[in-house]
């Protein structure tokens, strides 16, 4: 009698322990799978797959986080020339950059303006980030007409131009500044690399690696994301002026270059360029004597004002003349949109941590991106 009562208590205890263990196990499974609905998840984890891409140096074991004001492995910064009126467009872009990338890295921002920044602008940006932010005004002589420009001729071009932004004087000042002076601004003095940013752009995907570090580790000088064709009426004499420069300075053009990317089989300019509203650049490129000589040659010719040369084709022609393909990187894993054109990393419209709308445009299929993949 006593034995069977003891057996009964033991059975009850065992039952209690196994029920408890089962509940703990179920709880653990439910907790572990709270983001997944199957063993592999119905969403493939974009950031994990990116982190596992050894070439980007992502860190699958946990992204390195850089302290907001701590020393960074690379002297890089996000840089924008911008107007006070662009505050809301700029806030949208900074918000996305922070959420997608910089909250982990805390690289500084530098904002430049031909006018003094308003208090609202500065506060509106500072509210969004823990990273250091600097605001600066342009140096005298870097915005406006150089002395040799015939301003009547420039006005005539503006008044008769039938191409986008053709009527704008300030747009031309902007393109000249971004081509020849931005890298010389005192706030950029200590930078090794800049990542150019603009208002109203979208960053579609998480970026779980440090593009500055990736550039540095791989000896890269120029990084791009979208490569369209330039609108020919804006650059009517740019190619001839560039050829003039090359003929005068053959010693500046290395044998291995990327000129095949910008010219067709007949040696004519094919209008291919990197869209410089996104560019990550080793600033030693723009600070080099050959870039300086090229910019001065173009500036003297007056094409910023007698036509409407953009900084994008100029940066791109410099890259084509002075760099080898191994120094230039197509950041095709960065999902990006500037009004009118977008790049969505392959496959990310249907999976992962990207929010691309395929109808926005698929720059990866543009002819200049295809040509890029073909040139060596
Ligand atoms: N401070 C200042 N910044 C300017 C001026 N014009 C353009 N910018 C900035 O220069 C960058 C390029 O100008 P955008 O007007 O965006 O030129 P875009 O990208 O060719 O043209 P959109 O299609 O209109 O974006 C942006 O960051 C602008 O905010 C100007 O007159 N003053
Ligand atoms: Mg823009």
TrEMBL record:
What keywords appear on the UniProt entry? Transferase
Pfam families of this UniProt entry? Glyco_transf_15 (PF01793)
Q: Name one GO cellular component term.
A: membrane
Q: Where is the active site?
A: 279
Q: Does the keyword Transferase apply?
A: yes
Any single GO molecular-function term of the entry would be: alpha-1,2-mannosyltransferase activity
Q: Which residues form a coiled coil?
A: none
Q: Which SUPFAM superfamilies match?
A: Nucleotide-diphospho-sugar transferases (SSF53448)
Protein's UniProt keywords contain Transferase = yes
**GO biological-process terms attached to the record:** cell wall mannoprotein biosynthetic process; protein N-linked glycosylation
Family, according to the entry, reads as follows: Belongs to the glycosyltransferase 15 family.
Q: Write the protein's name.
A: Uncharacterized protein
According to its UniProt entry, this protein's organism is Coemansia thaxteri
Supply the source organism's classification: Eukaryota, Fungi, Fungi incertae sedis, Zoopagomycota, Kickxellomycotina
């Amino acid at each position: 009698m006593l034995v069977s009562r003891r057996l009964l208590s033991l059975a009850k205890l065992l039952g209690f322990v196994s029920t408890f263990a089962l509940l703990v196990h179920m709880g653990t499974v439910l907790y572990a799978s709270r983001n997944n609905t199957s063993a592999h998840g119905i969403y493939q984890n974009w950031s994990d797959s990116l982190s596992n891409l050894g070439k980007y140096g992502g860190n699958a074991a946990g992204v390195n986080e850089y302290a907001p004001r701590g020393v960074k492995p690379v002297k890089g910064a996000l840089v924008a020339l911008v107007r006070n009126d662009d505050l809301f467009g700029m806030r949208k872009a900074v918000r996305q950059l922070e959420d997608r990338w910089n909250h982990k890295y805390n690289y500084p921002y530098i904002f430049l303006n031909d006018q003094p920044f308003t208090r609202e602008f500065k506060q509106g940006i500072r509210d969004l980030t823990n990273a250091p932010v600097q605001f600066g005004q342009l140096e005298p002589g870097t915005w406006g007409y150089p002395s040799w420009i015939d301003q009547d001729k420039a006005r005539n071009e503006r008044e008769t131009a039938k191409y986008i932004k053709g009527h704008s004087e300030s747009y031309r000042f902007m393109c000249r500044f971004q081509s020849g002076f931005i890298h010389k601004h005192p706030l950029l003095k200590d930078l090794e690399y800049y990542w150019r940013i603009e208002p109203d752009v979208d960053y579609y995907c998480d970026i779980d690696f440090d593009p500055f570090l990736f550039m540095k580790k791989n000896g890269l000088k120029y990084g791009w994301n979208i490569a369209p064709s330039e609108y020919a009426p804006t650059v009517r004499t740019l190619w001839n002026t560039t050829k003039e420069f090359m003929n005068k300075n053959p010693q500046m053009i290395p044998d291995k270059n990327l000129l095949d990317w910008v010219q067709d089989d007949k040696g004519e300019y094919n209008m291919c360029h990197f869209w410089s509203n996104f560019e990550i650049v080793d600033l030693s490129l723009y600070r080099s004597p050959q870039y300086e000589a090229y910019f001065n040659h173009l500036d003297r010719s007056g094409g910023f004002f007698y036509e409407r040369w953009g900084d994008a084709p100029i940066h791109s022609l410099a890259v084509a003349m002075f760099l080898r393909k191994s120094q230039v990187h197509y950041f095709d894993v960065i999902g990006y949109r500037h009004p009118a054109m977008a790049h969505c990393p392959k496959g990310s419209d249907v999976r992962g941590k990207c929010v691309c709308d395929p109808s926005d445009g698929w720059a990866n299929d543009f002819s200049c991106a295809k040509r890029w993949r073909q040139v060596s």
